[in-house]
Amino acid sequence: MKFGKVNNPENIDFYLCEDHPNTKKTLARFKEEKLEFSVHVGCAKWNKQDLKNFYPRGTKDELVYYATQFNSIEMNSTFYRNFPIEQFEKWYDKVPVDFKFFPKVNQMVSHMKRLIDFEKFLPEYLDGVVHFKDKLGTIFLQMHNNFGPKNFDRVVAFVESWSKELPLAVEFRHTDWFNDEVVAEELYNFLEENNVANILVDTAGRRDLLHMRLTNNEAFIRYVGANHPTDYKRLDDWIERIKVWKTQGLSNVNFFVHQNLEEASPLLSAYFIKKLNKELGTDLVVPKTKDGDVPTLF
Fold first, then answer.
1. Strands across the sheet containing 197-198
2. In this structure, are residues 160 and 194 in contact, taking their beta carbons and an 8 Å threshold?
3. Is this model's pTM higher than 0.90 or not?
4. b/e per residue 129-163 (b: at least 16 CB within 10 A)
5. Residue 19: left (phi > 0), alpha (psi -120 to 50), or beta?
6. Per the structure, how many domains does the chain have?
7. pLDDT at 3 > cutoff 80
8. CA distance readout (Å), 290 to 96, 112, 193, 280, 283
9. Residue 135's domain spans which residues?
């Protein structure tokens, strides 16, 4: 992922900003339900070309092996094309019962048509991803960074037409969604009223987008490392924040690791999962390298 890439990450202040005041209030609505704490951690891709040195020699099916090391995938391939139903059925059959796919909405809906006439283009996408059935995680819609609040009516129309049976998360990249307090509160309240997750993006060059406002009982976090030693401290900070949210009522965490050089994503994920297991009592598999050891980057 090149979004937010910088040449000198050591010069970036990676301070994880304080929570929006209403995040605690939102989570409080779920605290008394005492729901089971669920965590999914994964990469954005599973192909061998991007995840070099991850697959053992002789691996015949990359997804099958990937699913032994991770319990989820942030599926960006669905952004670029719609696949036939048969392909989703094959993917479904290759992974364990507790594995989840988190597919990105196709670019025709989000970037090319910019939510205009989405009724014409969304059905083909949905007709495919629903065949993930019980292995379908949260679907996420990512808007272009020049899609601003002047188009808020399109967001309203899209979300209000969305099937409540399908969990949805949305990522906004235009600064005005968050820097204009009036716009931000209107957006946050709308997402919360419709049970839509507000995606959190942690990347070096766009600290202005790290708003820390949860709008439902899901922390959908897209973490972009900088291929730099600071990546570890940043992950430590996320562990601490998730611990706080858990005490406040959070029960769903979906954390996806990207890198400017994606081959490092499994390495960072292994570090994050190992610490997550220790600090929060989860029992996730810690990914290993092709040589069978727990990897480190630096």
1. 139-142, 168-171, 197-198
2. yes
3. yes
4. bebbeebbbbbbbbbeeebbbeeeebbeebbeebe
5. beta
6. 1
7. no
8. 21, 39, 45, 27, 21
9. 23-280
DSSP H helices, the chain, are 21-31, 62-69, 77-80, 85-94, 107, 118-129, 152-161, 176-179, 181-193, 230-248, 265-280
The residues, any chain, with a CB within 8 Å of residue 11's CB and separated by 6 or more, are none
**Closest by Cα among 198, 171, 186, 258 to 223:** 258
Residue 2 belongs to some domain of the structure: no
C-alpha–C-alpha distance, residues 63 and 73, integer Å: 10
Give the integer Cα–Cα distance in Å for 122 and 292. 42
Q: Residue 85 sits in a domain of what CATH number?
A: 3.20.20.410
Residue 82 lies in a domain: yes
- Residue 185 forms part of a structural domain: yes
Angle between helices 85-94 and 62-69 (to 10 degrees): 50
> Using one digit for the tens of pLDDT, what is the confidence trace for 253-268?
999 999 877 888 998 9
Please name which of 256, 273, 280 lies closest in space to residue 202, comparing C-alpha atoms.
256
What is the per-residue pLDDT across 222-245, written as a single tens digit (0 to 9) for each? 999 998 899 999 999 999 999 999
Structural contact between residues 196 and 169, judged by C-beta atoms closer than 8 angstroms: yes
The CB density around residue 290, as the number of other CB atoms within 10 Å, is 15
Q: Supply the DSSP symbol for 37.
A: P
**Looking at the domain assignment, is residue 172 inside a domain?**
yes
pLDDT digits (tens, 9 = 90+) for 144-163: 999 999 999 999 999 999 99
